[in-house]
Sequence to fold (292 residues):
Amino acid sequence: MKITKVLVTGTDGFIGTHLSKLLTENGFNTVDNYSRGYHKSLDVTNLGQLASTCEDVDAVIHLAGKTSIKSSLRDPYRTYYINYVGALNLLEASRLRGVKRLINVSTYVYGQPRHIPINEKHRINPHTPYNKSKLLAEKLCQFYSSDFGIDIVTLRPFQIYGPGARPESFVPSVIQQIAERGEVFLNGKNVRRDFLFVYDFSILIVAILNDFPNGYNAYNVGSGKSYTLEKIAKILAKLMNKKIKITYDEATPSLNGTNILADITKVSDAFDWKPKVTIEEGLKHTIEANLF
Fold:
């Protein structure tokens, strides 16, 4: 059955804003609380509301939840509650309304890498309440898929960036530091991350909707390239035409590992998808959105 009508949770969030626009441009009918005539976003802890909104949709994309690692350390209960109960409610609402396809956007769940690049067979070892809450949601998805015949795709994005990202996330925070004082504080000289532009991530979701796999499937998602945080800061400074001083905080350990690089072979082969936006292009777009 061709997917045309899609419920998206978290449409007012970073990824949701970009994805909703792209879905509309590609001919999908996007459903959320606003399209139903409400003036606030979906409450994923409200099963009744979700069950009502799930009616007559072909697929669900789950983006809503608590996404801050630091916040999860301060208030683990709220992170676990919203991310676990939210996933459970959406799965149950899908079961009740006969929705048979769901995309669950998870996160990096591998902790300190044992090998590079990181494929889906790597040991699972999340280090924070946020990452652990998303892993719990993944387990629920696996059970609902096997128990009730729902086709579910779990995406594990490593580091999504772009216009509209939370101000405290890495790229926007560095842009702000460069713009305001020209001094950038980084969490370790050797920390590397795999950065993926939000548009490329959204394109992948469209590709999945057009060729949805059967059963339960999990995919690592990244650019397939890693950069030191220092390299990203220097690219940003060059694009902003600013000189910077970099200070390293070697005392604070990186909670998600030192060198993170996604093996995107599985997701690339499954959906004929490869990231197209270069790191320079993506950072340029992000600067323009943050400063102008």
Notes: The two ends are 43 Å apart (CA to CA). The chain has one domain: 5-291. The mean pLDDT is 93.
